[in-house]
UniProtKB/TrEMBL annotation:
Listed Gene3D superfamilies: 3.30.465.10, 3.30.70.2190, 3.30.70.2740, Uridine Diphospho-n-acetylenolpyruvylglucosamine Reductase, domain 2, Vanillyl-alcohol Oxidase, Chain A, domain 4
Family: Belongs to the FAD-binding oxidoreductase/transferase type 4 family.
Key words of the record: FAD, Flavoprotein, Oxidoreductase
UniProt source species: Psychrobacter aestuarii
InterPro entries: FAD-bd_oxidored_4_C, FAD-bd_PCMH, FAD-bd_PCMH-like_sf, FAD-bd_PCMH_sub1, FAD-bd_PCMH_sub2, FAD-linked_Oxase-like_C, FAD-oxidored/transferase_4, Oxid_FAD_bind_N
Cofactor(s) this protein requires: FAD
Keyword hit for Flavoprotein: yes
Name used for this protein in its record: FAD-binding oxidoreductase
Organism domain of life: Bacteria
Domain FAD-binding PCMH-type: 49-228
Signal peptide (UniProt feature, chain positions): none
């Protein structure tokens, strides 16, 4: 739909859209204002805020993004970035008449530098698309998570996405060697340009990673790739005491370099089995489960893994376990962890994505369990997460006889107690999903008031008119 067909648009928005088509070579399919499109591109996976954008624009180049930003500044219009819209903190929700800038049409993979194991990509490249490109080059992009088939790299960079391999490979930040960004002023910056060594002052690239589009929009990135892992082997172990989960982690880490160490509880397994998409890992049911993964290209590594497993059994930490014997079996075992979010989504879970130092995890879990049990005696609670890096997902499941609004309201009452506990252990209220709007009221539990003032001052430098994803992270 062209701007001329939408006379009900606010005048400033109408003027901006008309300028894009007449002055900046935007085609009709690069602008959408119909109700279905506004609903689709105006939201992410959160269900807390209703989308209410005025238009969706689809730039194809960095220069077109710059045109949008400059026009938005001139007309006082707020912009919200949109990638794969898989976020869980409402960081990509346009709830107040914004124009959504979708990067769907900026999905090209550019120049590859074999000697540097480096590739240039546009922000709209899907995570799985980059992973496949790396595989085609006999390389590996290790940042991985359940939404890899739809999440976009610009969004991953904006939230510093983590996922299931952080224990070995780190967060998205570790793999971004350069960025092209359009700031809130409309300036184009080329940051670090892919270099490993660059000691020329402030590394502005790092400011934009995790900034959720509040300083400017990432349009391109130089991404580092890694060698492919060899002979990945997966174990799923069951235990009845949470302390034994940590004992097992320590035992394996002392002997083997793990590529993943995931955790989930019996509630998660119960829901998975009821859903029917995965098989029981072993005959006995236990209270807690871990999934661990490691490279085993040489027989001595496998021997060492079996030695550790047998030691854990003898110590009484592990009740039962299973180990993959093929790639297909490893993939099946991974489904036990990767399918949890999809399986429990029908229960409209209230999610908390928190992290503390690994050393604090047992005490933290005990404290949170006590809070949840006393405040939600009738609610089911599902725990899972990337426990090998201290990241835990607390999911409270909505009862069938309760409305979503009433359920969320009850959950939010106890948030103060949960986040007081996060603060007690010096943790983060958002380990890997960003702050957005859902975690904004709780930012002060992880960041001091002085820190937040510095964050606001940085935003004013890059986005003096406060048009870039306004209302996310904090209220400037």
């Amino acid at each position: 739909m062209t701007p001329s067909q939408t006379p009900t648009l606010p005048e400033a928005v109408q003027t901006l859209l008309t300028a894009l088509t007449t002055e900046h070579q935007f085609e009709d399919n690069q602008i959408k204002t119909d109700a279905e499109s506004l609903e689709h591109w105006g939201k992410d996976w959160t269900k807390h805020f209703a989308p209410a954008p005025t238009a969706i624009v689809f730039p194809k180049t960095t220069e077109q993004v710059q045109s949008i930003v400059k026009l938005a500044n001139a007309h006082g219009i707020v912009l919200t970035p949109s990638g794969g819209r898989t976020g869980l903190s409402a960081g990509a929700v346009a709830a107040d008449g914004e124009i959504v800038v979708s990067f769907d049409k900026m999905n090209r993979i550019g120049e590859f530098y074999p000697a540097d194991r480096l590739v240039t990509i546009e922000a709209g490249v899907v995570t799985e698309q980059l992973q496949q490109f790396a595989e085609d080059k006999d390389l590996y992009y290790p940042v991985d998570f359940a939404s890899a088939g739809s999440s976009q790299m610009g969004g991953n960079i904006g939230t510093n996405a983590g996922g299931i391999k952080v224990i070995r490979y780190g967060m998205t930040r570790q793999w971004v060697m350069g960025l092209t960004v359009v700031t809130g002023k409309g300036d184009i910056l080329h940051l670090n340009r892919g270099m490993i060594k660059n000691a020329t002052g402030y590394d502005l690239r790092q400011l934009f990673i995790g900034a959720e589009g509040t300083l400017g929009f990432v349009t391109e990135a130089q991404i580092k790739l890694e060698r492919q892992p060899q002979d990945l082997t997966v174990m799923v172990l069951g235990m009845d005491e949470f302390s034994d989960v940590m004992n097992v982690l320590s035992a394996f880490q002392a002997k083997i370099d793990l590529t993943a160490f995931e955790f989930f509880d019996s509630v998660a397994v119960e829901k998975l089995m009821a859903h029917g998409q995965v098989q029981e890992p072993f005959e006995s049911r236990t209270k807690f489960y871990t999934l661990l993964e490691f490279e085993a290209p040489y027989e001595p590594i496998m021997d060492k893994a079996m030695e550790v497993f047998e030691s854990c059994m003898e110590s009484g930490w592990v009740v039962d376990g299973v180990m993959s014997q093929s790639i297909a079996q490893a993939e099946e075992l991974w489904k036990l962890r990767e399918y949890i979010s999809e399986t429990i989504s029908v229960f409209t879970p209230y999610k908390n994505d928190v992290s503390v130092l690994i050393s604090h995890v047992p005490d933290f879990i005990n404290d949170i369990d006590a809070i949840v049990s006393s405040n939600y005696p009738d609610f089911e609670v599902c725990w899972f997460g990337h426990i090998g890096d201290g990241n835990l997902h607390l999911n409270i499941l909505k009862p069938d006889n309760m409305s979503k609004d009433d359920f969320f309201a009850e959950c939010q009452v106890v948030n103060k107690h949960v986040f007081d506990t996060v603060k007690k252990y010096g943790g983060s209220v958002s380990a890997e999903h960003g702050v957005g709007m859902t975690k904004k009221p709780y930012l002060h539990y992880s960041r001091s008031e002085t820190e937040i003032e510095y964050l606001k001052a940085i935003k004013k430098v890059f986005d003096p008119n406060n048009i870039m994803n306004r209302g996310k992270i904090f209220d400037a």
